[in-house]
Amino acid sequence: MSTRNPEISKGIDWSLVWIYLVLVAVGIAAIFAATYKDGDPVIRSFLQYKTDYSKQFYFFIIAAVLAFFVLLTDSKFFTATANLWYVFGIFVLLLVFPFHSRIKGTESIIRLGGFQFQPAEFCKICVALALAKYISRPETDFSKPRSQFIAAFIALFPALLTIFQSETGLALVYFSFFLVMFREGLPPVILVVGFAIAVLVVATIVIEPNILAIILTVIALLTIYFLRRTLKRNRGILLVIILLWFVCVGIQRFAVPFIFKHVLQKYQVERIYDLFGKDNPYHKAGETVDLETKKKANGSSYNVKQSKIAIGSGQLWGKGFLKGTQTRYDFVPEQRTDFIFCTIGEGFGFTGSVLLLAIYLLLLFRIITIAERQRSVFSRCYAYGVAAVFFFHIVINVAMTVGLAPVIGIPLPLISYGGTSLLTFTVMLFILIRLDADRQMVLR
Amino acid sequence: MPVFNQSRSRIIRLIFLVTFIIIVAQLFYLQIISRKYRKLANENAIQRTIVYPLRGIIFDRNRRPILNNTLTYDLMVIPSQIKNIDTVFFCNLMDIDTAEFRTRIVNGIIRNRAFRPSVFEASLSAQKFARMQENMWRFGSGFFIQERPIRSYSYDAAANILGYLGEVDSNFLRKHKDEGYQSGDYAGMTGLESSYEKVLMGERGVKFMIKDNFNRIQGSYENGAFDTAAVAGSNLHLSLDIELQKEGEKLMQNKVGAIVAIDPRTGGILAMVSAPTYDPNLLTGAERRKHFSQLYSDPKLPLLNRAVSTYYPPGSTFKTLQAILALHEGVITSKTTFSCSGAFYGCGKPMRCLDPGVFNLTTGITHSCNTYFANVMQRVINNPVYPNIDSSLSSWARYMNGFGLGHKLGVDIPSEKSGYIPTPVTYNRMYGKRHWNFCSFRSVSIGQGEVLTTPIQMANEMAYLANKGWYIIPHLVDSIEGGDKFGLLNKYKKRIDPIDIPDSVFEAVHNGMQGVVDAGTGAGARVPGIVICGKTGTAENYYHGVKQKDHSFFAAFAPRENPKIAIMVMCENAGFGGTWAAPIAGLMIEKYLKDSIAADRKPLEQRMMNANLIPAYMLHEMRTKDSLRQVRKDSLETIRKVLKDTLQTEEVPDEEQAIVTILKKQDDKNKDSAFKKTIHNAEAILPKKKNTGDKKN
Fold it and tell me: What is the pLDDT of residue A321?
């Protein structure tokens, strides 16, 4: 407390603040474009908290106030309370189970008076803090697998709870924390293995099972053939190859079908298959898909189709602000929230979309630059956590609107309509700014 | 310690960069390379609406509009926007009960969904329109009144000429693929509406509207920058004289037949009456289908345009042309005489004649002497100039074709028939090669037998005689406002002058024709102060093998010098040509040349108008139809026919097909000796008939 600055602005990274303000402004404008109807009284509805864009504006004001408070806080507060926040986050997540309200098929929202609150969003901050705290503990040696395992558990426990709330999309976000761990020394093998498993899963979906099994076997046999000299010297490698082959075929023949059948919701499986243009093979013959599932899945493929049409019709320069025929006349559902990128793609075309992505990339690079200049491990880990969460949200959201990723409902940071999401990302970013402002002070 | 693993920050940046590049590549594909999405977006959100122009107006020769557009008003409803209305009050205004109200709303929802407008009541009556207009504000945005132009016929006349509009069907659409029609459009189905469809329909406009995801119109696209305006259809000016037409329709009421009057100098049709006719206003507006089925099943066949679509043996009117031909061939002169002892004996079995005596060309025509013309044709056929009867008959047929018989003239309304002129082929088929001679078809010489002509051909024949050797293809449309862009009128600009015949030949025939009216069989046509050349005709005919009363014909032109009108009147089964057809023709000529009927001739006009000459067999059919059972049986058939109604299109081949059912009856009626062994493909359905071929008159 003694080191507290008389002016809070000292040491603040203004470039981040500016990027933040630009993104929020773009967001409000995009929500305006998506929901404005000709003849609406703009000024009045801005003041009256009636329309989505005015609500988002008020959320922004609340977020700004919160950000201000965050900046007033001493940076040691966050290191000190990181674990408490984590416990609180988990507690709120658990609170959802008795108090949840069903909104659009999700079970992850708490209603408080007129407000809805999505703990899974908020919990991301807690995890980022707690993970940073754990890794930065002096007694943690992150090169030990045990520490790595605990870190992974910290990151993935909320994900597990989120899955139980049928919010698989939000749960996936927590996997982005592996990026932090990777930066802190997680063996790259794990990323490679993760990537290999991802390729294998996609291959399982796309390629007929028996053919894939044969391909895997051929690859294994070829490897053995090319490594035959080495193998003579080291029998162990042969064992590893055979084991790998066994695991791959196991994943392909048993693990993936098991997950699709028993872990994921039916509509999610449909969406994944939709993305690759395949029919879902996990219907048992004679089993009729119930309407609800069908509707959910079809709805999402309709969304993606309309979203691609909207973005594609923007062409190089776009149709102009408020001129988009697709987004303005409600062809794209959820276009204020998860599909907000369509409004930009249609209105401002390729130029506008790439510009927006460039701003995001600038934000991410800036965060990494900031991360690397921190003297405290805690700050660096936290910064990487922020970067990872932003990155995951941006990539999955945009990839989903352009048809590169399956439809999982996660918002575009700082732009999508939604109070919880805006507040979460604001607080997350401003904690980082606070930490960065104090980077010279202590070695934590 | 913070430096360790620092290289990984670069790897992470690389991962970020590569991922973003993949997304940008996909954006590049969607937005720059692929054109598909732009197109899909437009189909999604832009609605192309056709703007229908007003159809052209049709004027008669004195610039009176006879086919016009009027507005009717439809009451429209958008079910989803009905809020808090006083349903009982509304129903009182509309003269319906609340159950009916509900039914109509539900029907609207089923047809067009709840949030789009559908018709609540089409063509509001004047009173309902006034009442609703006044109270519209009470019913909010759920109801509104929409204008719709329909065709209106200001004179209630010339129904068969003007034709009617019908909804296009898939057949029509296939035939007019590239002309921009779409289902639900209306197009001319018969008459001028059909033959001048291209001109009358104008050019459609296109309007681009923005719609939302429920297809609700949100406004005009880009403020109408891409819209094209509709161009109204061109107006037509006819040679028709609507007053004369009305007079003709009155004179022909309660009769079955036709009148065709032509201005011989221009070929323009002055009047074309087909009796019985109908009120053309019946086939516009909301009740159109009901009225159509009534008209369609009427045994009097009011929808049949008898002036162009039926054919009859021409009877003695045909003799005039025989005289011209014989004079031109040189087998007789105007001085040649034949004596008649009461019948023509040249072929064994006598062919009777009205009054015995010695006739030259003029008196032969005046008294319509069968013997004279049998001898004349015998000379033509046995003319030694020709090596055999085949070539002489072929030459004869060529003359007839030159006179405009035996082929379609090319009138500008659809479903014209060609009539029939026998050739050697005809008789080879009937009797076998070389097994026939003049006696086989002697009755042709007096316009019976195998000869068939349409009323318009007979009127044209008079125009040909009046002009002394040429005619212009009869037509209704004189000019098209704004120019004849499709060249539709070109063929009506040139004289047809197929055979070079000296005027003296025509003078001789004219003498005889003047005698017909002044002192002969056609005295009934006489009009004080006008020199009329005419010729009566009386044709025997059979219906289902039973001999019916003769068809009554009269063909004429007037005045003799500088003829202004050529006319042909035909009354089916009315009897002797001089009794009915001649006075009607006289009255028509008077009406046209003098503008009105003289007071002392009014009683004659009245008598003609009042005469009821509906053929007996038709009366019988009508009575049969009235019996309840028949009605019920017919109604099924009627429905089927109504469906067919819209299938009738203007293309000639089709038209012929579509009308086949009508003609079957008609053919029976026309049946006369000509069909003894028959020439037409229809032969199987025709009862065998014993020859008579003989005449009267």
Answer: 79
**Residues forming a β-bridge with B542:** B547
Query: What pLDDT score does B662 carry?
Result: 39
Closest CB to A312 among B1, B37, B45: B37
Question: Do residue A316 and residue B32 have CB atoms under 8 angstroms apart?
Answer: yes
Q: Which two structure tokens, joined as six digits, stand for B665? A: 């009856």
Our CA angle for A27, A32, A33, nearest 5°, is: 100
Q: Residue B368 and residue B355: Cα distance in Å, rounded?
A: 9
Give the pLDDT score at A108.
59
The residues that bridge with B269 in the sheet, in sequence order, are: B262
Helices (H), A103-234: 119-136, 145-164, 168-173, 178-183, 188-206, 209-226, 228-233
For residue B606, give the DSSP letter. H
Q: Which of A285, A290, A286 has the alpha carbon at shortest distance from A266?
A: A290
One DSSP character per residue, A336-368 reads TTTTHHHHHHHHHHHHHHHHHHHHHHHHHHHHH
Domains for chain B: give ranges and CATH numbers. 49-237 (3.90.1310.10)
* Residue B8 forms contact with A (CB below 8 Å): yes
Lowest mean pLDDT segment, chosen from A228-242, A380-394, B576-590, B648-662: B648-662
Q: Do B210 and A329 touch (CB under 8 A)?
A: yes
Please, are residues A34 and A340 in contact by the beta-carbon 8 Å criterion? yes
Cβ atoms of residues B553 and B577 within 8 Å: yes
Whether the Cβ atoms of residue B244 and residue B591 lie closer than 8 Å to each other:
yes
Strands B58-59 and B236-238: parallel
pLDDT per position as a tens digit, A287-308? 445 555 555 555 556 777 778 8
* ipTM of this complex prediction, to 2 decimal places: 0.84
Average pLDDT, chain A: 80
Measure the CA–CA gap between A438 and A433, rounded to whole angstroms. Answer: 9
Q: Vertex B202, ends B196 and B205: CA angle to 5°?
A: 150
- Give the torsion sign (CA, A258, A260, A261, A262): positive
Note whether B276 and B236 are within 8 A (CB): no
- Say yes or no for a CB contact (<8 Å) between A353 and B37: no
What's the maximum distance between 2 C-alpha atoms anywhere in chain A? 81
